[in-house]
Specification:
By secondary structure, the chain is an alpha/beta fold. Helices cover 38% and strands 17% of the residues. The protein is globular, with a radius of gyration of 21 Å.
Length: 441
């Protein structure tokens, strides 16, 4: 009887009526642990009083002022806070309303940068297979998730993809992680040369692959080699931290753990913590200068960029994220989550890999642990796990198509950073029961 075109038609979704801490309550009074923060969004849990207060204070002052007429204190403050926390070299901020918008803006910045500096022949985007960068046309084209792209392919702009860094499946027997990183670097370099080194504009990657692979981080040195190759050919490196950024992996930016600085980085999700839809692109001085000294503008914009209430929420979220006890908790609770999952599921014949960092963890489901054979996709194991988990009062984020867009299943966990030890135990217990029930184990 709904008038909404829901994501899936005909499912009987529970109605969320309240949220508090790590819990969401539905109309029937059932309570769910938000073990995935929705989709890695609710980093501070629900109804955080300080964020609500910052939003209502801003609403009482002014809720909206178009950015072609005004800037606001909250938007300026947010940008200053982000730049202060970002690795050195990311000096300016462009505000948008979500992750896909951030990726679109970053792609357009890359293109305009080359136009401004007189290299307008640069147009190719290289990204990785089994990645997700959003659902708008440019972002979808950039992402390498075959399932999401398939029916829209005829209308997607041309993009190019290389292999992800996915050690669980792609590290060859006897290959060291250094050799693996080098193999992937060589593949990227070959693709650049094939396309014409002076025609490639940007390489785009998630430091930790979220929704598509399930919390897959790189092997050591991978991103260092990628940065070197981008520098060698004068190509911009865009890191997509929409999911893995804003403290999710235990550092404010995931890239800090790789020791590299990109030219552009996209953030969203945890930036607004779900209190407001907001995203951002952080850009280097080099790109800003090219615009400032060139046309004097970035030829882009949406009605709601820099929205004051969203900026107020995000500014408060970022201030809270920067309190030392919060990242300490992400690391501590992340370790406990990994240990708990290892203990409960590590020996399961249907669990191939348990991975991730901080409070972004993934569990890859297999039909045979030794051969890493996935389940028949027709069984929709991921959908069964989601259902079983919801029945047990747990929100988790399972996906299918882990390996190639069709085969493979994984579950992603991304609970709020305020989570406590007994709540981690409850997630592990409910998830293990849900997985065992779904795979018939
Ligand atoms: N990039 C990454 C890495 C994401 O995980 C997502 C969403 O899951 C997006 C971009 C798109 O963000 P949004 O759904 O806010 O448009």
């Amino acid at each position: 009887m709904t008038k909404i075109l829901h994501r899936t038609i005909g499912t009987n979704l529970p109605r969320a009526v309240a949220g508090e801490g790590i819990y969401i309550t539905d109309r029937e009074g059932r309570s769910y642990i938000d073990g995935s923060g929705g989709a890695a969004v609710s980093c501070l849990g629900h109804n955080h009083p300080e964020v609500l207060e910052a939003m209502s204070a801003q609403m009482a002052r002014i809720a909206y002022a178009h950015t072609s007429f005004f800037t606001t204190d909250v938007a300026e403050e947010l940008a200053e806070r982000l730049v202060a926390l970002a690795p050195k070299g990311l000096d300016y901020v462009y505000l948008v309303s979500g992750g896909s918008e951030a990726v679109e803006a970053a792609l357009k910045m890359a293109r305009q940068y080359y136009v401004e500096i007189g290299q307008s022949q640069r147009r190719h985007i290289i990204a990785r297979r089994q990645s997700y960068h959003g659902n708008t046309i440019g972002a979808l084209a950039t992402g390498g998730n075959e399932w999401r792209r398939a029916q829209f392919k005829p209308i997607l702009p041309e993009t190019h993809h290389v292999s992800p860094c996915y050690a669980y499946r792609d590290l060859q027997p006897g290959e060291t992680s250094e050799a693996y990183a080098e193999r992937l670097a060589v593949e990227l370099e070959a693709k650049i040369v094939e396309l014409g080194a002076d025609e490639v504009m940007a390489f785009v990657a998630e430091p930790v692959v979220g929704a598509t692979l399930g919390a897959v981080g790189p092997v050591a040195d991978y991103f260092k080699r990628i940065r070197e190759i981008c520098d060698k050919y004068g190509i911009l490196l865009i890191l997509d931290e929409v999911m893995c950024g804003m403290g999710r992996t235990g550092t404010i930016f995931a890239m800090e753990q790789e020791g590299i600085v990109p030219d552009l980085v996209t953030i969203a999700k945890g930036l607004g913590g779900g209190f407001q839809p907001i995203g951002a692109v952080l850009l280097s001085e080099k790109i800003y200068r090219a615009f400032a000294d060139g046309s004097g503008l970035f030829q882009h914009g949406h009605t709601y960029i820099g929205h004051p209430v969203a900026a107020a929420a995000a500014s408060k979220v970022v201030e809270i994220l920067n309190r030392p006890e919060l990242m300490t908790n992400v690391i501590k609770m992340g370790d406990q989550l990994q240990a708990g999952l290892d203990e409960a599921l590590g020996q399961s014949p249907h669990v191939g890999d348990i991975r991730g960092s901080g409070l972004l963890r993934g569990i890859e489901i297999v039909s045979d642990r030794d051969t890493k054979q996935p389940f028949d996709p027709a069984l929709k194991i991921h959908a069964r796990i989601k259902k079983e988990a919801m029945q047990r009062g747990l929100m988790c984020y399972p996906m299918g198509g882990t390996i190639d867009g069709k085969n493979g299943d994984h579950v992603l966990l991304a609970p709020p950073y305020i989570i406590k030890p007994d709540q981690i135990d409850a997630i592990v217990e409910r998830l293990a029961a849900a997985i065992n029930s779904a795979v018939g184990g």
